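As the next step, I wrote out a protein sequence along with its fold in token form, included below for the reader:
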Amino acid sequence: MSTSDELLTQALKILIDAGVEMSGYEFSLAGGATQATVWKGTSPRDTSADVALRLTPKPAQLITRIASLVDGVSDVTCPRTLAVEQMDDGDRRWTVHLCTWIGTGAPQRPDMRLLGQHLARLHLAMGRSSIDVTDRRLTFERNPAPSPDQELPAWYVARNVWRDRIFAWLAVQTEHAVAQPIHGDLHWGNIVATNTGFGFIDFDKSMFAPPVFDLAKLISTGLFSVGEGRARFQARKTTALLEGYESLRALSAVDLVALEGLAVVLNEETARLGNVYDDDGYRSNAAAVADWWITRRRRAPHDPLGIRSSRQSASPAEVSSEQVPLWPDEDPIEQR
């Protein structure tokens, strides 16, 4: 397998051979996740913008289609694709994706309400797109059941509280939770600070799903702080995020149920990735957050994240006298 420097050299040659002007750019490694590697390219010419050179195993045809979707977004800052090519390295094929560099790194003290507004603008813009991504629907790989002679992990227990019911329930709520193109991998590593607030990067996992999935992933991966094996939910930040989002795009009672269920399923996904890549950090974080969910489910079964309570306090006139139950077989929540 080639080193990152060798891959960069090969990728630049592919781009130059395709007629892309790359002279004068200096590249530095900016990130390498489980699937993609990214370099930042800086030009000595003031008139030339910085670029991002990405290597991803996703097929070039798919990256081109996603690029067409993202290039149509003008309401918020997203990368603009400059070139897409293919590169073979031994028995592995990479897609070389050259796009504009946006942002100044991860936001340090983010304005959560503003982030919610930017995400709502992203969803509204992607929802207007004519690019077809209906073949990329929301799915999850199942974790195998632990052996019967060991204690069930907390994330596995939490999954069984929610998982097998959330998809069946959403299936009969399609008129309320309409699917559309969304980001699909919205964690803090894919949000960058910009001069106008926030930008969004790495759309490789864009899919056709209810927009609330992006909110659920952001909450499940970024709004739980874990320390000494315990998780603490950042309720105020979550409330501000949702308030900002709803100032531009309303969330229904169905959306809130989906958000809560998907957040639990996504925590299980964190555990699965920890197993796949043998990452103890992922596994321990997933276990701590699952413990929080299980405890919270017992204490507040109809409002585990406190979303409904905060919405009632903020605008009581807009809350109906009866809330949709968290699950279909539970009694409605009476307002007191």
The first helix runs from residue 4 to 17.
